[in-house]
Write a structure and sequence with these properties.
alpha/beta; 2 domains; 7-stranded mixed sheet; 14 helices; 13% strand; transmembrane; membrane; transmembrane helix
Amino acid sequence: MLNSVPPPLPASLQEITAPPSTWLSTLLSLVLGLFTFSAVLAVLDDLTIATVGKQYFTVFRVLAFLPLLPVGMVVFLIVAFQPGIPKRVFMTVALFVPFATVASFSLYTVFYPHVAWVSLFISWVQLLTALLCIRTLRGSMLPKWPLVPATSFHEKPFRFLHLAGVMIIGIIAVPATLVMGTLFAGKLAVRQFTDGFVDVSFSGVSTEVRDYVRDDGKKVTLVPMAHVGDSKFYEELGASFPADSIVLMEGVSDRQKLLETPANYGKLAALIGAAEQQKVFKPQGTVINADVDVSEFSPEILALLKKALLIHTKGITPETISSLLEASSSPGIEQRLNDDLIIKRNRHLLQVMNERLPETRHIIIPWGAGHMPDIAKQIQGSGFREVSKEKRIVYQF
């Protein structure tokens, strides 16, 4: 009797006493499965957008993508407290979304005319990363449940030094790298799309006011503006304009009430502790609105603007983002946006400028920074030459 083998445990008790690796295997398999499924949807969505201009998978892609960031944070904590987990695989899964998002900003800027194909490239990288993770764990790229076998865990005791190291990476190194990458991408995008009229640094956002003169003594000052900024910027800038100058203001009118929701930057201003240009900027001189009416935009662009303005009222939600993405997926939409929102408005502004030049020796144009490269090119082509620059701080971090 003393040497007899004890009877097996009941099935219910076996499940209760299953080793932790079994639960981790299931949990991490679900995580890797979600990461892979999200990648597949991203590839399908970007492929259909780039080839046929349709967004059949966008809603499903967004729904699969949104949980990845919080799930990644959970995985990071699991790696910190469980040294036996394959760190190369799950640190990659946890950090892919934030790092890929930051990297995409720079890629979109450099390859701006080919954004759809850049997005498809990033989606393929995510899918390849997922398959390589599966191959590392299972020895094959063919998915088989569980994606993370219990045999992939190593028998390692909990160590405080390991926990401290992972937490330092997660709390200090990763956020610092992401912040640096975001600032670099933002700086690159801003300088490229504004031709240096706007700059972003660790201290804040600045603009470059440029003066242009013509041989007959006429002067045009281009002042890049932002919808929100420090109240000091708007107050000092408005007071610096000569009283005898003509100020050609930006501001699309809506006489027929075609836009159901007017643009409102109050929430953004309150969020960052800034002021709204519309409320604070009171320039000296003769102020004239030199912008177009919204009725001059094409129906397609008008519909896109309506959906974009929903973000002002409803905020950033899957519904508003999906609606905006659907409206902006039409092939060639970027060029038509530029034609209506930049070229058409700049053409009207320059027409007003030429009409008003005989009345004054100094015209000031405080318009959005995105308009400045084209305006500068046009006035230089009409005989004006740049003579001076002045840096002004719009917003201090």
